[in-house]
Fold this protein.
Amino acid sequence: MKVDYKTPLQVTVRSLRHYHGIEAQVEETRGTDFFPESEFSSGAGAVLRFNPKVQAILALYNLAMDCKYDTGEAVVRYVLFHAALETDHYDLALAHLDGFREEAARLGLAGLPDDVREEAGARLLLQLYFTLFHESFHIILHHHPDERRAALTTTRELLLDIRTEWEDGLSLVSEEELLNHPKTQQRVEAMIPTELPESERQAMRELLYGQMSANRLSPEYIDQVLRADPTLVEEITCDRQAWLNLLPILQGDGATDWDILQVHLWLFIVFNAMDFNKVLQAQFIPSFHERDHYDGMRVVLRHKAFKVLLRQYSPDVYRLLKSDYLDLQTGLEAIYRSSIMALHRYADDLARLYDGYQRGATRPDFAQYKRLNEEMAEATRAIY
């Protein structure tokens, strides 16, 4: 099925108007901020920012995490292409467009079987609905304080439940035991490109273990979030509301417990794509590069809260879980490895892009911009 992003956009806007009395204007955006954002205006209005390129980036992550294609190089090429366009580096954009085409050909993306392509379309459509529902709930919570208070209270209760669970888990295993566990070591090794010299592999090993130690699950971290991170509490709230909005639609369409589990896993891919896109942006956008260091606990907690939704609201679905999340992680590790090598190769390009973002707006060549965008749109046509 061919996905038309305008349909979920229209559904979201009409729903805000009909059920909540909120007039939301859609603003299409460009660049490497692929995921929807909202902005509130006075009165009963809001702006929903949407970048159509989110379809291609999600499709690339889907191919990696759900279909086991190593699309890491293609992801980096796609992101750097749009960064180059945004900074008016058209020669660089063309180079990454050509590189993307080569990767698509190497992976055989133009020849995907019909059943794979059909499922890819369904997967992407549900992901679009979820991201838009999520963003619409930011708007709803802003305009309706009573609903906001009730929803945030439910989230705080959820986080306290997770806190208790983590506290119990920490009493069973020490940090040293966790870091030295064979599965932990296997996951760390899976994220390190074999092409790197051993000295660099060892440096990455130490970095990853250091991050794992610093970002270990901590009940005290939840206390900190509840006390001083209302932004994360709201993000987790909107994740829950979006899932609970989507769930009855799936059930009304006759989805089985197995179907619902698959959709839940597809939506988990969205979180990973958003997180890793921020990591890539930090390599070439000064405002990202200068922010605080990566907060792994923030990411872990949001992921954990989304997983807990299955146990809370769909226990029969939750019981079907086996190694599904770990299977998705295998695809993410492949993206991570390929991306590390790509970022090594394109260090000079990253420096040019960084300078371009720092310099600010120049005089864009609209003809080149339009032509290159159209060519990339054609190159990605096969993947969603």
Notes: The chain has a mean pLDDT of 90.
